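I had to read the description of the data format several times before I understood it. In essence, backbone conformation is discretised, so a fold becomes a row of integers matching the chain in length. I therefore recommend that a typical entry be quoted early in the introduction. For illustration, here is how one protein appears when written out as sequence plus structure tokens.

***
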Amino acid sequence: MNDMSPPPNRPKAGDSPLGALAPAQGAEGSLVNLLEFDHEGLAAFCEQLGEKRFRATQLFRWIHHKGASDFSQMSDLAKSLREKLAKRAEIRPLTVATEQASADGTIKWLFDVGGGNAVESVFIPEDDRGTLCVSSQAGCAVGCRFCSTGHQGFSRNLSTGEIIAQLWFAEHHLRKRLNLAEGERAITNVVMMGMGEPLQNYAALVPALRMMLDDHGYGLSRRRVTVSTSGVVPMIDRLRDDCPVAMAVSLHAPNDTLRDDLVPLNRKYPIAELLDACNRYLEAAPRDFITFEYCMLDGVNDTPEHAQQLVKLVRDKVSCKFNLIPFNPFPESGLKRSPRERVTAFARILQDAGVVTTIRKTRGDDIDAACGQLAGEVQDRTRVKERISTRSPIRIHREGQHGWSDTQNKQETKA
């Protein structure tokens, strides 16, 4: 996604940014990481070992449902199978580099994924649910102006095993930590809203989603697993056919001119194409609406005119709800959070027009775990600092005695 001009030909649906993939698993002389396999993949692996497919179900339950990492613990597997597994395979978790706990109960983990890269996951506890925010890439190539991850650049995609290992660790660590009863879940919801654009890592994403949904694994409802995307249109269509779960779209602007600047991917897949893809997705989605995420940026996208444009954009055109997100500032962005009263007024315009709208409660901002703050450690391969330094200043609308006026944000050019 480095070249932001519209390309003459779209990539094939499975293409990844820079063609970057996680290191291959199970190379000669190494052990196969069983976290890489969804249920069907594990069945195929068991057949390679000369075992019946039903053994895969037993093994899958031990790994994901019970959190076992030692084959000797798997008491209902034949001793001969356990010996085969010990020679050929392993359950390889991610190394926890750091853990931070917020005053509001939010927990953030930094996982070492090798090569100088580290990714972050966040657990958000609430009275009626426990939500885990999961990363899909080391960095992000989309480069949204308001996102700390995008300012770190992009190194590589995570493998399926690295994606699911975040849930595997969090679920079983929290069960012990919270002293939960047997069978009680710590994680009830998963949102693919951590570091990275999930749909640019499609090949690794879908098996991970299937593991989350599998009754022998984590048993999550499709309604409780959400993929958030900046708008990779061909992959939205593929996800509808392959593994439809709840969908959130990072919209952040009511028109192409502004969205081109805030979310550069819009230059390839403009808003009209994105909304059409959303409507197609709803044909198979477990929920009857798309959630549009909208980060409230002071003077950038938060005026009454912007709210009215959003109403015109979506009303009677796509079934949706809006989630207005207070911006979590970081120095390189040059942007500021919209005042609370302006966010409230913005929401009221949408609600008065019949558009379901909520304002997200910020969680974990004291440990940089809130929306847009995840950065981890990224060995950038996209020269992100050079690209950001050449960006044009963003237009800021200032409210004064005589209404709204425009100024240029000079700070952004110094990022």
Observations:
- Confidence is low (pLDDT under 50) at residues 1-25, 410-415.
- The two ends are 19 Å apart (CA to CA).
- The CA atoms of residues 131 and 189 lie 5 Å apart.
- The longest strand covers residues 117-126.
